[in-house]
Amino acid sequence: MNLPGRRPSSAPPPPRPTLYGALRRIHLSVALIAVLMAGISLTLLGMTALRAYADHNLRLVARSIAYTVEAPVVFGDQAAAADALSVIASTEDVATVAVYDGDRQLLATWRRPGQDRFPALRQIAGELLTSGPAEQPIIHESQQVGTVRVVGDPIALLHFLLQGTLGLIACLLVTAVGAHYMSSRMLGDIIDPLRNLMRVAHAVRSERAFGQRMPPARIEELNALSEDFNVLLDELEAWQKQLQRENRSLAHRATHDGLTGLLNRAAFAEALDQALRTAAARNQYAAVLYLDSDDFKGINDRHGHAAGDVVLVGIAERIRGCLRESDTVGRLGGDEFAVLIEALRQPEDAIRAAEGILDAMNVPIDLPDGNSVMAPLSIGLAVFPVHARNGAALLHAADAAMYGAKRDSGATWHAAETAPPQRQA
Q1: Contact at 8 Å (CB) between 226 and 193?
Q2: CATH for 19-173, among 3.30.230.10, 3.30.450.20, 1.10.150.130, 3.40.50.170?
Q3: Distance separating alpha carbons of residues 340 and 279, to the nearest angstrom
Q4: Distance separating alpha carbons of residues 297 and 390, to the nearest angstrom
Q5: What number of other Cβ atoms are within 10 A of residue 196's Cβ?
Q6: Catalytic positions, please?
Q7: What's the average pLDDT block by block, 10 residues per block, for the chain (425 residues)?
Q8: Which CATH class is domain 265-415?
């Protein structure tokens, strides 16, 4: 009875048999049935052949005894008949021998010692392995003068049968071992490719290991399956590489300006916040330069927008060429650029960077039509933590300083105002 509020416990599902185990059981069952059927058939065939052989041998013994006791029977010599029986019968697999005269009177008899032991076993063996006693007439001058009655020894036949059965069992065991070995090899040829397929499929699904490949298989159908699976993996690997390239391209376009290749505003703001966190943790300075072209609208009006794009690309290249590899450059929009300088040893180092950019812009920029133009810049400079203590405020301070440079006739730099000291709680 289930208690209220409790779910009945569900028994776990029974484990599924493996393909190797199922095929192995089937092969072993078939091999066992085949060996048993072969053993039973050979046993029955051997018993039939042994019975025919025993009957034939018993008749030959009876005929040999009839020839030997012919003279004693003719003369009615019981002692000579008994001596002849003991000489011949003792060397053959017979249980009893009786010699009768022409009147069916017992003349001599011979009995193998130990016939009283195991009577039930002797009776069963005699019924299975012999067809009964053999009688042979004793002929003298074409007339029957007596009869020889011979009963075979079933224990000797049973001993012979047991030896043959042991040999048969040994042969069947060798056959079973051979069948098991061949079955194991055949199962290996079937199961190993399937295991490889399962391993590769699992690696592809869980680890995205599209470089995995199936080894060749010995069986034609399984080898064709392996080759088709490898072709599918080739297509998946090519598709994955194409997808990765497209993802990298999309990620680059999402964070970079399409014209200049510089970081866009959002990516630059994220890089600025990360740099300020690092500078605060290491007690370092970081600076932002806010750059704006002084004559970009006039260049567009005089030479066209295509020339304006060339000027923007040239400005970006010259800014990038004046900085270290660790510094970051972004295009914030239009003709506005920003530079992030990290790990400053002193705030004055940012001034040298700004002056280097101004000097680089003193060289005219060549246009596609053969003309060249000057593209002077106004630069606003703000240093963390001197002018601001977070990314947005630092960028805003540099922007305000840039407008101060423009008011000073442009083509120069201007530093931001020092931030007021923070009050302590």
Answers
A1: yes
A2: 3.30.450.20
A3: 12
A4: 32
A5: 18
A6: 335
A7: 51 71 75 80 78 80 85 84 81 83 85 72 67 83 87 73 78 78 76 85 84 86 87 88 87 88 94 94 94 92 92 95 93 94 90 94 92 94 94 95 90 84 47
A8: alpha beta
